Amino acid sequence: MKSKIINILIVILFAGLGLASCSNVPTQLDPPLAVVANVDKQKYLGKWYEIARYPHSFEENCYAVTAKYELQDDGSIRVTNRCYEGGLDGELKEAVGTAYFVDNQSNAKLEVTFFWPFYGDYWIIDLDENYQYAVVSEPKRQYLWILSRTPTMDASLYEQLSTKLKVNGFDLSLLNKTPQK
Fold it and tell me: CA–CA separation, 95 vs 113, rounded Å?
């Protein structure tokens, strides 16, 4: 029994070390990252298409990435991420996780887990008033996603969002557009 517990602790330790190295993006803490003033949970639910992202290991080689958010009876959000591995005609991969609102004042800060007990910050830092696009990051700016309700985004809107991101300390040279179907 004792050896089983030790083995479990070793697995958790190595999993934690692996998650800590998921991003190759340098930490950027200044200026402190602000979130949007208010998110209507019901309007945010549904399907989002990934327009662009910072590189990280858990989405490596992913194309046509989507995220679906569904409210659960306990108030948590079921997160279903999908992508095609290796190309637009690749094998469909799916990861299911859970998100929890951690800032009930704005609803703009969530924690997400795909592998308990490890959680990641999910901060909504820009949001269209009609919920047609969202920009998501976390306090250290190591992760960044531009999301849209449609598989494509108008080039001028993408440039406007990119300009805002640069002003807020994001390195746009690391931002990669995500091919969609």
Answer: 10
